[in-house]
UniProtKB/TrEMBL annotation:
Keywords: Metal-binding, Zinc
Annotated signal peptide: none
Pfam families from the UniProt entry: GFA
This protein's name: GFA family protein
Keyword Zinc included in the entry's annotation: yes
Length: 115
């Protein structure tokens, strides 16, 4: 497997994961819909986020289980990190990577709006 390197639209946030994910998550909850999120799940230990601390903007909503991060400069929603959610999983917006690396992967639809 080859590692994937992605970035937000302006390039201020760089993301590296060790390989393509096994599947892509499409969720219909309000947060995923309104942020244009298409997810992939990772153990936080293997994800590298490179960004100046002041470029990342955090958003915590509702059940406060996760923190959603976006780039202050270009607005791209790049990743989320767990708060009260299980600490061994974080999300990366697969759209930060070139589509050639992920558009062929299986899509798992999650009915987050009705959980
Ligand atoms: Zn950016």
């Amino acid at each position: 497997m080859v590692e994937l390197k992605g970035q937000c639209h302006c390039g201020a946030v760089q993301i590296t994961v060790p390989s393509p994910p096994e599947e892509i998550i499409q969720c219909n909850c309000s947060l995923c819909r309104k942020s244009g999120w298409t997810g992939s799940f990772w153990n936080p230990d293997v994800v590298e986020i490179q960004a100046e601390p002041e470029i990342l903007n955090s958003y915590v909503q509702g059940d406060k289980m996760i923190t959603l991060w976006n780039c202050k400069r270009c607005g791209s929603h790049t990743h989320w990190t767990p708060r009260t959610a299980p600490p061994d999983r974080m999300g990366v917006n697969i759209k930060m990577f070139d589509a050639g690396h992920w558009r062929h992967l299986p899509v798992r639809k999650v009915d987050g709006a009705n959980l």
